[in-house]
Design a protein that fits this description.
The chain is an alpha/beta fold and 438 residues long. The strands form three sheets. The chain has a six-stranded parallel sheet with strand order 3-2-1-4-5-6, with helices on both faces. A six-stranded parallel sheet has the order 11-10-9-12-13-14.
């Protein structure tokens, strides 16, 4: 099959490279000429484990090409995927659909034979119909169908998620479009991956509902962690106790500083807006959004409380600034809320992150960046772990403590054991755990 991919951001690039790995011929298009040139050289503009090696292999095989010419991603292709950004508008909760609509118009003007136009971007319900209407208006003679094919990629694990997904969701009732999509995903079908065909509106809601549910689990366990701290219970054991219930499951039950990233904040907001628009308020999700925003600032308060209520003139070392490990994504990262609050309280901030410092430097002012965890911790009165990178799980604690001026550690990811850290001389604070380990 020949596939076009409009947009070479996170979703578009990962999808395009993985489709090429499936054996399809893929044409990726983007307006950014510098980006296209770097991709042609095999240079990946994002941090995603395994993606650069996979891209180099596909370039060598000749199954993937990069261009700024949309016509090459449409003419002669069996399907063209729209994988452009849909950020939340600043002044409201609506998803910004301008990039999707622009892509639809460009695609319409280049259709010269039957093609399936696939919405891969995360879009509000009704977008497939909008794209269909735009294409018909721009090119009344176009022979096409529009399908919805939401992505379920986790940053840091996107290659595996694409190659070995839990399911593939395709929204289209057109038999010809279904056949094209079956052929595109045939390698997964042979591996018995469930492929769910639905109405387009159903597929669009599935994406938002899935992310909102996961965000709800995170927010739920964070509130349970607050209760655990009040009654001296252990949130990790609570999570294990409920996670062993097959109806609940253990994933996304790790208490922490709140969710961030490119998906959960944007998608929960978009779902609440859709509920308001169609007269079906999503009150649970509205509460999740509110609680999560409050939690980020409360984590700064937690650090201040651990320091005795005053951090003026103190140096605080922050380990990890990305919203999660194995990514350099800073979008809606808890650190973006925590750092300014601590600075306003009079603290000096030093920080280290294995991958996200480049992006973070453009988003955080007056932060001292270390080349590693130990340099960042030098002369720090307080150290806090915000992102659970693997290298932070095996720190040389004796060396770390020797580098610090103080001994206060605030572990917002519950990486270490309470009794062990206190036994090593740290004034240790974590999430949802007060007493020693059971």
């Amino acid at each position: 099959m020949r596939i076009g991919m409009v947009g070479t951001g996170y979703v578009g690039l990962v999808s395009g490279v993985c489709f090429a790995e499936f054996g399809h011929n893929v044409v990726c298009v983007d307006k950014d000429e510098a980006k296209i040139e770097s991709l042609r050289r095999g240079e990946v503009p994002i941090y995603e484990p395994g993606l650069e090696d996979l891209l180099e292999r596909q370039i060598e095989s000749g199954r993937i090409e990069f261009t700024t010419d949309v016509s090459k991603a449409v003419k002669g292709c069996d399907a063209v995927f729209i994988a452009v950004g849909t950020p939340s508008r600043r002044h409201c909760r609506d998803a910004d659909m301008s990039y999707v609509h622009a892509a639809a118009r460009e695609i319409a003007n280049n259709i010269d034979s039957y093609i399936v136009v696939v919405n891969k971007s995360t879009v509000p319900v009704g977008t497939a119909r909008e794209v269909e209407a735009i294409i018909k208006e721009e090119n009344p003679d176009a022979h096409f169908h529009v399908a919805s094919n939401p992505e379920f990629l986790r940053e840091g694990a996107a290659i595996n998620d694409f190659m070995r997904p839990d399911r593939v969701v395709v929204g289209t009732s057109a038999e010809r479009a279904q056949n094209v999509m079956r052929e595109i995903y045939r390698p997964l079908y042979l591996n018995e991956t469930p492929i769910l065909f639905t109405k387009r509106e159903t597929a669009e809601i599935i994406k938002y509902a899935a992310n909102a549910f996961l965000a709800t689990k995170i927010t739920f366990i964070n509130e349970i962690a607050d209760l655990c701290e009040k009654v001296d219970a252990d949130v990790q054991q609570v999570a294990k106790g409920i996670g062993l219930d097959g109806r609940i499951g253990s994933k996304f039950l790790n208490a922490g500083p709140g969710y961030g990233g490119s998906c959960f904040p944007k998608d929960t907001l978009a779902l609440t807006r859709a509920g308001q628009k169609y007269g079906a308020p999503q009150r649970i999700v509205e509460t999740v959004v509110s609680v999560n925003e409050d939690r980020k600032s409360r984590m700064a308060d937690k650090i201040i409380e651990a320091a005795g209520g005053d951090v003026r003139g103190k140096k605080i070392c922050m380990l990890g600034v990305a919203f999660k490990p194995n990514t350099d994504d800073m979008r809606d990262a808890p650190s973006l809320t925590i750092v300014p609050v601590l600075q306003q309280a009079g603290a000096t901030i030093s920080a280290y992150d294995p991958e996200a410092m480049g992006a973070a430097k453009d988003m955080m002012d007056d932060v001292i960046w270390g080349k590693d965890a130990y340099e960042a911790a030098k002369d720090a009165d307080i150290l806090t772990i915000v992102t659970e990178w693997n290298e932070f799980r095996a720190l040389d604690l004796t060396r770390l403590k020797a580098e610090m001026a103080g001994n206060i550690m605030v572990d917002l990811r519950n990486i270490y054991k309470v009794d062990d850290m206190r036994g090593r001389g740290f004034e240790y604070t974590s999430i949802g755990r007060i007493g020693v380990d059971a």
